[in-house]
Amino acid sequence: CGKFDYLRKHLSDELSGKAEIEFNEISDYSNYCSSGDCNTELEKITIGFLWLLGQYFGKYPTKGGIINDTKPFFLYIILWLSYKLNQNKNHNTTKIYDFYNQHVIGNNKYSKFTSNSSTFTNLEEFINKEKNLLNIDIKDLSKFYEASKLICSMYGNVSRSQTNDILSNNAISFVQKYKDLNNKYNTEGAPHLQILSALLTDYNNLNKECSNIPSFSDISSKVSALASEDTSSSSIGNRLFTVLSIFGAIAFFLGISYKVIIRS
Prior knowledge:
mainly alpha, 2 domains, globular, disordered C terminus, Yir4 protein, transmembrane
């Protein structure tokens, strides 16, 4: 989560927001824009994406192969990218996979990163492996971003000992957002399930870390009350929010387990 906080200081989440720090002061900027003239909003978004990829492969290095399982960090990267691309209409693409091929591989400005990427992984093979996720419509993917941001906010609340109404409100907001996403995108076999699973797993991992915090029981009660309001939900939805209310289970979809995203 710290990587996203760092990036947001250089590139605001808000469409008309002002960054705290100049974008070209991002670490290793020249590795992502060797020409030094990547000044448009779309170019900044692209560099932000490549910078996050660089951080991802730095955290999960491989030796002569690709990363075998999809980490939550990568899922959160594509959620951030989809959110930013949904704000910017100058790329004329509806899927991240197409955006990557047209605006990253097809642009010499980023050739230093793409050519050097083979030193830590086979980037092309990795991207193709994630094709199902990257072919989700950008508008749909962007709707998951707020939930991932709330997860990071809650981890930040805990690390700063903000275990009061701030954490409680973030937890309630997350569950409401998750409920909406689950109702719309919980379809058997859909790639969206990987994202839903990662979000739920990180939420349950947060509960494990906070099990000895007294105020978290109050959050649990509020969240359970919110979940119980959805009396007309499907059986899948009911099972999901039973899991949320007891905060103990680790979700598995598609045979993929996820690791906690703390301080990614």
